[in-house]
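Holo model, cytidine-5'-diphosphate. Inputs:
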Amino acid sequence: MKKRQHQALQIALDGPAGAGKSTVAKIVANRLQLFYVDTGAMYRAIAYKALKKGASMDDEATVSQIAKRTEVVLDHSEARRIWCDGEDVTQEIRCPEVSRAVPVVAAYPKIRERLVELQRMEAKRGGVVMDGRDIGTHVLPEADLKIFLTATPEERAKRRWIELKKAGKDISFQEVAQDMIQRDRVDTEREVSPLKPAKDAIILDTTGLSVEELVAKILVLAEEVIKDDTI
Ligand code: CDP
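Output:
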């Protein structure tokens, strides 16, 4: 893989919903002192805004117009808040309604173009761990380390259901599993930047792995890239 300076190290983490991307991305970013960029949160913020405005998600022109006028800001402090036109939407964007709307919004080319530009700007701040669906294939094609996380649909749905339960959401396991299958289908089948591993990505199956085990595996891979760079 391409050698880079540690400060400019780019780690791309892609994969389907519930594969563990954001949990491990945050820890890896902290350990290596890199920025963490949650690109899914950006798409979620746009979907949240469109829902709030009462737009129909199928109305591409209106939703794209709303996105154009929406300011999305990621906060890089420990709190990792996400702001949408000055409103802290960190909690709101995780609700099932936004999860259902987001793949529709994320398939619109104009919205992707705008957010990808923002994501690349974020990557210019310095070394970064960025998670999403198209980071290795499109947003950061030159990333030093590309990882594609997977896990069985059952395990992914279970993880997400437990997360939602902890957040006090009253939703059945079946509903979470169905929503997830539907979202993965739309993400995989869309024309623009579909969910798929980059040709040079390392595929890691996280089924049955603890967060710490997964973090350890990724840190070993990252250390190899960093070592390469310092020789
Ligand atoms: O946390 P989870 O994996 O469930 O989802 P997320 O990363 O918050 O992403 C939410 C949705 O945003 C995805 O299902 C995609 O529809 C979209 N997304 C995308 O299209 N491209 C990205 N780089 C990131 C997210």
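Residues 59 and 167 are 31 Å apart (CA to CA). The first strand starts at residue 10 and ends at 14.
Archived with the compound record.
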